[in-house]
Amino acid sequence: MPLATASGYYHLATGTQHAPTRWPRAVPLIASVLAIAAVMFLGAASQHPQASALYMQVPSFTRGVASARTVGITSQPPQGVTGPSKDTNVGRKDSPVMAGGLASLFGLDGSNIPRGVKMPGWQGKDVMIPNGIPNSKVTQALKMFTFPTEWPFTPEDFTRFDENDDGFFYDAPRFVTHIDDAAINSIKTFYKAVFDQAPQGEYSVLDLCSSWISHYPDDLNAKRVAITGMNDAELKSNKAATDYSLKDLNNDPMLSQYEDNTFDFVTNVVSIDYLNKPKEIVSEVHRVMKPGGMAIFSFSNRCFFTKAINIWIRDMNDGPGHCRIVATYFNFAPAGGWKDIRCVDISANPVFSDPMW
Question: How far apart are the C-alpha atoms of 186 and 293, rounded to whole Å?
């Protein structure tokens, strides 16, 4: 996603009353293409030939060794939690009628949107993303785009309204979801398409900026699912994970706990917009990824705006622009290290659900 990064919905703030801001989105059908886009950074060249990374507006995303087994996300909350809840839906206008019968009647439920995008996947093999929107401005964001010859961002681009220690902000666990069910199902569908390309029970995944869920498919069959995040209680409750580590990537962007060429996939879901050292982090993702692997970073149009970087919050509904921001990160981190950088819009319903890029 050139010039765009994932909105960090995985990062949970202290206090259930502090919810991510939902920025207004255009309701007209014309704006329906603004949804969940995904930038795919596939197959690395140079040091890691064929290392792949996929950026989904997602995606994704991005974030112990166990015997081969099926691990997945259940609908049940962690022990001691009454049930999965959602943060305040700021700005959402729900209409039971329009979201149901009339929406379907007028084609506003997303059912009339052409779907299916083919792109390079794991080990450079073509993969069909069944819920990708081929004609979306997000999917087409890199079509006529030329990467700058030098790193285009300034230190001011990565400043935030709240520069206090992130550890305080994420200190209290919040067992909530930060994107709606339609968006979650969209990213699951994307993950399933690419994960199914790898040998089942043998591949490894790293989820960056994770929480109590990773939005992976329910039938996930990975050998290892390593996750990093900032809240111990949330990470311990992630049923998909085989191992976890506490990590503040804004304080230390190095993934020194992981060896070179370790993971087949690295994911990051709605969190790229909080990272103030993206070049260092993406370079580390390249280092820990196996040749031919995929990096999948996804985002939407919601965030804790006080913790999001300046360049991101200038226009929260600019899906194509955010995709170009993120794609540019990958283009330079390291230079020549990634190939097949792609974007894809996988939004379920551009009118009534959270976008997924």
Answer: 21
